[in-house]
Amino acid sequence: LDFGLLEIGSESISTIDITNNSLLDAHWSLEELSHTQPPTKGLVQHPIYTS
Q: What domain of life is recorded for the organism (predicted)?
């Protein structure tokens, strides 16, 4: 039973790591897009840009 719980825990951690890496990759992709393309009001809704 303990081994089973440990195995489930390891799988959960691996899933979290994969999710975090995917989010980080997506974040960097958005950063690159924001540098190469002019920002649109639909994409950028930060108060600094809309004020």
A: Eukaryota
